[in-house]
Automatic annotation (TrEMBL), chain B:
<protein>
    <submittedName>
        <fullName>G-D-S-L family lipolytic protein</fullName>
    </submittedName>
</protein>
<dbReference type="InterPro" id="IPR036514">
    <property type="entry name" value="SGNH_hydro_sf"/>
</dbReference>
<keyword id="KW-0732">Signal</keyword>
<dbReference type="GO" id="GO:0016788">
    <property type="term" value="F:hydrolase activity, acting on ester bonds"/>
</dbReference>
<feature type="signal peptide">
    <location>
        <begin position="1"/>
        <end position="25"/>
    </location>
</feature>
């Protein structure tokens, strides 16, 4: 008990330990979502493939789970000195995750595979807002495929790692300031897919009094888009200046380092906390290299200059009875985006998260988990360095999700 | 089990509650507008020339009228107590008004224009359909400070004639027409044509045509001062604008000496490569500092004129003075513009009026260009987004930026908070 108190006071006193997760919306395990993203040390299950590969070997049996969330991302913008408020259209992004394990029961090793979407989003500002020459819409998704191996070194200590293969998809449009015969603006449409590779590693340690620790590292994954399609809707007289062509681009997805801890507060209640450091500073610029250039269609270089980000999350796991577990959590995320680089793609700022969730045992084979997290991105008034667009952004993210697990 | 069901119901309740809030986007603090101190925007009138009227693409037509900068200002003033703002719009049926230029094609990168001739508003040759409704936008293309006091001008200018009751045509001056409207606030932008009429005629005063007169500083000072005195008789407030330098507009910067030389060299196989112009100090070779007008008929170059060969290419047959403002004339005009602007600023300061410094703004558009929400705006012909196809008047986007310049000036002078225009809603030059 002395140990628990010590750890609790350490967590409360030292905010650096509380920082976790990045600016992405993580929905890989709905159990963790129910605790605002905390729980990497607490949960020893198939989703440990993502959260704590060192814990995977500690699973007794095997399991497969399928989960999906509905991320509803809604931003609003008011230009400086304007009365008009513009909102993104209502869009649902459905990140999904599949985790499956394989291995003998109660053995010293376990294998598993995870397919999940750690990054992604959909934002649609439309073609009639003051930032239309920056962005009309953006849809982005990174799908990670991760085979993982995990070993128990001792009864208490597990270690694991996986290889990550990423398929990235991006689709964006922006208005071009040339006027068509009907008075509307031209438009550029860019879409493409790319691939990248990375890995993750983790250790998981159980102390004698049920305190658990998890350390994990996910490497950066540089996704290279090759020969994406660049299509331009422009007046016919300008078609030669805007040839439909292809482009190459590179999207660096950041590395992250996560520390998680969990401990029982009573026989029915566990508390978990996670702190994550995300190496977003690799995102320095977004460059599009067009296969065909003309005097007006030049390769573009957009500075991003992201900073490293931190997040911290704390959650409570309450076993009301054998069949039902309830969860709740709160978290805080520091944004990686500096003011002059805030753009309509990610009108980001520090955000607060609150969540609730439950797991219901349908039978001794089947679990149903559901969770809901609300993220409120604080209002941010910025002037974009590149375009000069000046105004206030505010964003709410609602993400309900559900998953089903089969155990054997 | 019952307790369990209830718990699940509560959770489902929470989830469905949040689902209903999804549609609600986050709330952003709204803009607090304010009329500021000591200003009454109830009845705003706009006094001015073609720029005030919404003239563009060498014509006055409905689409241009609708986006005239005073109309955009009036829309914003509705946030701070402004009333209805009537404009002598052409009817939908006669929407193309005087007719105007449009871009037909780009041939080898060169613009080919055509005149719009349908749905015009002429009731007879040189006379437009009369407008009889209420007016708040009193912009009259071609209006000048000096001619504002000449009653006969109403019979000579079809845009002014259109607004006047038949009995007042030729008998009522523009000054008398607009200063009797019991306005509470005004915008005033006259004086451009007092230099531009002369400059567009190649800095050549045509004795037959009063619109080519180069207004003297004395006449300008008297006419301008009297106009503003009268408009502020009852302590009304307003905004005035300075006069842009003529060398900021593409009308004078597109047909350059270098371009003409290159064209001549190419078409004569290198036999000729200089342009000869006639100036006050005699005939000489044109330099980069001499400005040719956009209306200069380049196909006359090298042709026989007055029985002499090679028009403009040999010193014996120089270009007529009216197609070029030579560098001395450029300096003369710039000096006059500066003198006028000094008068404008003095008068405005004495009446505590806001000053929209269009002179400084268009200089900036010309020299560095302006980046507005991702649009590059500069003074290049057609591509620059600011100027319409006549190279003088503004595009809808240019009008929106001008409206914001005026609004900034009003906000500054009267400590008001009038919301700005979202200029991205307005277009540049239409391409075919």
């Amino acid at each position: 008990m002395h140990m628990k108190k010590l750890l609790l006071s350490l967590l409360l006193a030292s905010p650096t330990l509380l920082f976790a997760q990045g600016s992405q919306v993580n929905t890989q395990s709905l159990k963790a979502v129910g605790m605002a993203g905390a729980g990497s040390a607490l949960f020893v299950d198939e989703a440990s493939i993502f959260y704590s590969p060192g814990a995977l070997a500690k699973m007794d049996g095997n399991a497969i789970s399928i989960g999906a969330s509905a991320i509803m991302y809604r931003s609003a913008f008011r230009e400086y000195n304007s009365t008009e408020i513009h909102e993104t259209k209502f869009k649902i992004t459905p990140p999904f995750s599949v985790f499956a394990t394989l291995g003998p029961k109660n053995s010293w090793w376990k294998a598993g595979i995870g397919v999940y979407t750690p990054f992604g989003g959909s934002v649609d500002w439309g073609t009639d807002w003051p930032g239309k020459y920056e962005l009309n819409h953006l849809q982005m998704r990174a799908i990670y495929i991760q085979p993982t191996l995990s070993f128990k070194i001792t009864e208490n200590f597990g270690i694991g790692g996986g290889f990550v293969y990423n398929v990235g998809l991006v689709d964006l449009s922006r208005s071009i300031p040339v006027t068509m015969a009907d008075g509307s603006s031209g438009q550029a449409n860019l879409s493409g897919t790319g691939t990248g590779m990375g890995y993750n590693l983790g250790v998981h340690y159980h102390l004698e009094d049920n305190v658990s620790l998890s350390l994990s590292y996910r490497s950066k994954v540089v996704t290279k888009l090759k020969d994406g399609d660049a299509d331009f809707s422009v007046p016919p007289s300008l078609a030669a200046s805007f040839p439909n062509t292809t482009f190459n681009a590179e999207l660096p997805l950041p590395a992250s380092f996560n520390f998680g801890i969990s401990f029982p507060a009573s026989s029915k209640v566990d508390i978990a906390a996670d702190a994550t450091f995300i190496g977003y500073d690799i995102y320095k610029s977004l460059d599009f290299d067009y296969a065909d250039n003309t005097p007006v269609l030049q390769d573009t270089h957009q500075e991003k200059k992201y900073e490293n980000a931190f997040s911290g999350k704390v959650g409570v796991n309450y076993k009301t009875c054998e069949m039902l577990t309830l969860r709740a959590g709160v978290g805080y995320v520091y944004t990686p985006v500096r003011g002059p680089y805030v753009s309509p793609e990610t009108p980001d700022n520090n955000r607060m998260m609150a969540s609730a969730g439950f797991t219901y045992l349908l039978s001794d084979k089947w679990d149903l988990t559901a969770a809901y997290v609300l993220q409120k991105v604080q209002a941010r008034t910025v002037t974009n360095k590149a375009s000069g667009l000046s105004g206030t952004y505010k964003t709410n993210i609602h993400a309900p999700g559900i998953s089903l697990t089969y155990k054997w | 089990m019952k307790r369990l069901n209830n718990t699940i119901k509560i959770y489902l309740g929470i989830i469905s509650l949040s689902l209903t809030t999804y549609a609600c986007a986050p709330e952003i603090d709204s803009f607090e507008s304010s009329a500021g101190s000591d200003v009454d925007f109830t009845k705003y009138i706009a006094v001015g020339n073609s720029l005030t009227a919404g003239f563009a693409d060498r014509g006055l037509y409905l689409e241009g009228q609708q986006v005239a900068f005073p109309n955009l200002i009036a829309e914003q003033l509705k946030n701070v107590g402004g009333g209805t703002f009537n404009t002598p719009f052409f009817s939908e049926e006669q929407r193309n008004g005087s007719g105007y230029l449009q871009l037909k094609s780009l041939t080898d990168g060169q613009p080919v224009m055509e005149q719009v001739t349908s749905n015009l508003a002429y009731r007879e040759a040189g006379k437009l359909t009369k407008y009889t409704g209420k007016i708040h936008n009193y912009g009259v293309p071609g209006m000048r400070v000096d001619l504002a006091y000449i009653p006969q001008f109403g019979a000579l200018n079809m845009y002014f004639e259109r607004l006047l009751p038949e009995a007042e045509v030729g008998t009522k001056s523009y000054f008398d027409f607009v200063t009797t409207r019991s306005h509470t606030f005004f915008s005033f932008w006259l004086g451009n044509n007092d230099v531009l009429g002369y400059a567009m005629n190649g800095a050549y005063e045509n004795p037959e045509d009063a619109t080519t007169t180069f207004t003297s500083v004395t006449n300008f000072t008297n006419g301008y001062g009297n106009f503003i005195n009268t408009l502020t008789t009852n302590g009304q407030k307003g905004v005035v604008a300075t006069i842009p330098d003529v060398s900021t507009i593409p009308f004078f910067t597109t047909v350059t000496t270098a371009r003409l030389q290159a064209g001549v060299e190419a078409s004569t196989g290198g036999a000729f490569d200089e342009i000869y112009i006639s100036t006050a100090s005699g005939v000489r070779i044109a330099t980069a500092e001499d400005l040719f007008t956009l209306s200069f008929p380049t196909d006359t170059l090298g042709k026989t004129s007055n029985g002499i060969l090679a028009y403009g290419l040999i010193p014996q047959n120089p270009l007529h003075d009216r197609f070029v403002i030579d560098k001395d004339e450029v300096a003369e005009i710039a000096g006059r513009v500066n003198a006028f602007n000094t008068v404008i600023k003095q008068v405005a300061a004495s009446k505590k009026l806001a000053i929209a410094d269009a002179h400084a703004y268009l200089n900036k558009v010309k020299t560095t260009g302006i980046s507005y929400n991702g649009i590059n705006v500069n003074a290049a012909f057609i591509q620059g987004n600011a100027f319409s196809l006549d190279g003088i008047h503004l595009t809808p986007l240019g009008n929106a930026l001008m409206a914001n310049l005026f609004i900034d000036a009003i906000n500054l002078q009267y400590n008001a908070r009038i919301p700005k225009v979202d200029a991205t809603k307005y277009r540049g030059v239409k391409y075919p």
